Amino acid sequence: MNSKQQMDITELQKLDSQHHLHPFTDAKELNEQGTRIIVKADGVYIWDAQDNKLLDGMAGLWCVNAGYGRKDIAEAAYEQLQRLPYYNSFFQCTTPPAIELATLLAELAPAHINHVFFTGSGSESNDTVVRMVRRFWDLKGEPQKSVIISRKNAYHGSTMAGASLGGMRFMHEQGGLPLPGIVHIDQPYWFGEGGELDKQEFGLNVARQLEEKILQLGLDRVAAFIAEPIQGAGGVIIPPESYWPEIQRICDKYGILLIVDEVICGFGRTGKWFGSHYYNITPDFMSVAKGLTSGYLPMGGVMVSDRVADELISKGGELAHGYTYSGHPVAAAAALANVKILRDEGIVETVDTDTGPYLQQRWQELGEHSLVGESRGVGFLGALELVSDKLARARYPNSGKVGGLCRDISIKNGLVMRAVGDTMIISPPLVANREHIDELVDKAKLTLDQTLEHIPSIKFDE
Ligand SMILES: *Cc1c(COP(=O)(O)O)cnc(C)c1O
Q: How far does the centroid of ligand 1 lie from the alpha carbon of residue 4, in Å?
């Protein structure tokens, strides 16, 4: 790097701090540290402005499933931009890419799901779900059924409804959330909250909180339950096998709608097309985004079961809801190209049968490390619980300090991992091959060693 390039970077960082407010960021702290400017990417790697090459263990923000630098996605978008850059799907109109994408999604989704409502993001998808759930029960003649049950530490987006459905306390504290009619039960987080209970027993217990909550609120008031198949932003929390069958049983028994937030698990992350396939769930709604376009353009959607679609369609009347960019033709063209890549190149299948099991086998090795209390994963998702005492599952004080240190060291070692408190998480591009996986795990191992060495220099405030 020459001094001119360094000056450009410093100038860009200065402008960023003067004009750009970042999501989920302490702006004061960021301005003191300066931003990392990412300038290009290819395959599973990203490069920053200082020309550091990083293996992107997070696929951007859980979204670049097809990997970076796919010219076919760029060309599909460019071609559509020239032909028809925009038209809406209001007023009896639509566009060919939106139709073709809706058809392809219906093919890939579980058999009883055949309709999609397009949005611009995962948050918008979950806002849309709230509207549709309430519309469904209105049409059924039971408008008092409006309460949606969610889970603590869930993530369902950042809009008012998304953040309300989510169970992140620090988000609720800003803005007087959750909105009325949204309540939360415990999460199936055995490592953090299972205590001495057997994993499967714990899974059943937390699932049964749903039944208790329904009975406590009164079935006449409960509309739906929402959950991620595997919690992502909460820390890659993988429920015990006993959890989902019990949730499904309870939803079926009481006839409440089951919303599965597939924003992370969708499009191959678990090795199946959807988390609902992986756990054999029968949802009434699936929220999608992220991997739908591999992040190349913003787009989301709500996939709707026949039970719900029949009700919404057959009774007639307008759903008073929609976005300017619902079904955006360029985003839809990019999504189509992306989903076809995932399908036609066998990428989802490879994660299921080859690279996913290989990643899990190698990730499991990290569980032997003395800093790691548990290593867990499914498909191309993984988590490491950093602990001060392995057997006692004891945490370090000041959750996030050790995790933050580990993340910073990881980036210095050329690997993007994310820290959620003291849980390290990964969600790599689905195109990572065995060599990339070896590089990822080796760098993570080195990072754990170096983190352990540095921990004595951390100042914990007790
Ligand atoms: C990221 C995410 C969302 C929100 O998606 P945005 O596109 O950021 O609005 C919703 N649900 C889950 C499970 C997510 O991971």
A: 39
